[in-house]
Amino acid sequence: MAAGSSYDDLPMEWVGNWAGRRAALTPERMALYEPDSERCITYRQADQRAERAAALLTETLGIGPREPVCLLSRNRLEAVDLYLACGKTGVILAPLSYRLAQPELNDLVRRVAPRALFYDEAFAELAADLDLPAGAQRVELADGRGRWFEAVDAGEDPRTGQNRPLALSDPCLYVHTGGTTATPKICVVSHRQMVWNAVDILVSSGGSLGPQQELLTFPLFHIGGWNTLTPVFYAGGYTVMPRSFDAGQALELIELEGITHFGAVEAMLQLMAEHPRFAGVDMSTLEQITTAGAPCSSWTMQPFWQRGIRVSQSYGMTEAGPSNFLYVGDDQGIDELREHHDSVGTSMFHTDYRIVDPERLEPVRRGEVGVLLMRSPHNFDGYLDEPERSAGALLADGWVYSGDLAHEDAEGYVRLVGRADNMFISGGENIAPEEVEQVLLRHAGVRKAAVVGVPDPRWGAVPAVAVVAREGADVDAAQILQFAERELARYKVPRLIRFYEDLPLTGAGKVDRNRVREQLAGEAGASSGEE
Description:
The protein is of the alpha/beta class. The chain has helices at residues 18-25, 43-60, 77-89, 102-112, 124-128, 146-153, 191-204, 223-235, 247-257, 266-274, 298-305, 334-339, 387-393, 433-440, 477-487, 513-530; strands at 30-34, 39-42, 68-72, 92-95, 116-120, 137-141, 171-177, 185-190, 213-215, 238-240, 261-264, 288-291, 310-315, 325-326, 346-347, 352-356, 370-375, 400-408, 414-419, 424-426, 429-431, 446-456, 460-469, 496-499.
């Protein structure tokens, strides 16, 4: 290696070869189980499948290093095969969310310009309608038929020699992130990012995450899916991967497969706790649940705490992690978890952070709210073909601008407050909608809440809230208002409260605040007109 060059740029045999290296170390250990098809494979078999998939990519389809392919699929073994094969060959995997509408998907496909589209048989109609570049091929991932099945599933040839040296700086994934105010951003995720993030998870958890029996609940079009699978694969653990999340199936798998850990968003935990099987299922092996994606309420955690299961929050973002903060608390009991339930803990072993003034980017005093910045070896490499947006996220000295508001308490625990771009001003006071929402979610009758600012002639904007009541709850706007007035500063109390059956979501599964704002602003205007 020449003087002054970096190991990040040095091609090495092990980079991306998750399947080959783990198979060399623990070939007969069970790697992955897909309950929907009842397929269970060892690490040796995972590597053999990856080799055959790699041959399909390079020899049959003629796709080379740094060329992208798109994936439109549920969580299934073939998707993992493709990920491992891309790791061996240097092909870039670009997962697509099947929750997006066709125009949104076509925009992503246009920007990625894939050499091929691999699609789940469940999305055959959607895949056929996508506008692929000239010469790009469609390959169906189906049970028992098609080119993929013949090459990988039914193939008897134990293909070898497909792995090629890659550098840590080489791109691994193109991952799109959801947004409501602009086109989705496509994050360039390098092998360096995936390797260092996996290492940081394993080190920061003190070994409690990695070689566990993991239930994979996050979809593989989201970085959270790959961020679950990769560290477990790295450590030689066992992953149970249903094709989609179902609360009843998840409970059954926890018992049957001896699951020790899983990650979840709040809605998943609520569905599990409300399921008729929850009280009777054996969860004695389940050691920990880690929530992600958005803050999780204590009300949601409570049923699991009551069963002695450790539930705590984590935090990260595709651009900076995807994992950056973890609440470990391995020496603490359930009471301590309850006390710190609204905290994401502190940063992982290899992650620096600062909380800064959003305008001056200077650190604020402990306890004050500011924007969270992060810096680690697992930062992303910018947004695909968008240098201006990349410059807004990647600041000087390696800091990533999260756009998330946070504060640090006297013990060093970090708590998230909301999004800087969701904040609005009412009578000169800053209001973070998420802060108000977390208070309202403590009301026994509130299942979901979305707060936005709506125009007001006197104050500029005032808080309004869309509420989804808990099933069977006898709750009305007057009760919510009384609760809010007791718990919140006067200027944060919603002036308009409306109930809905559910909240609108973006294609990425997040609350669509633009649509909520339109609905509530319209109702606020109608109310003013009536007066």
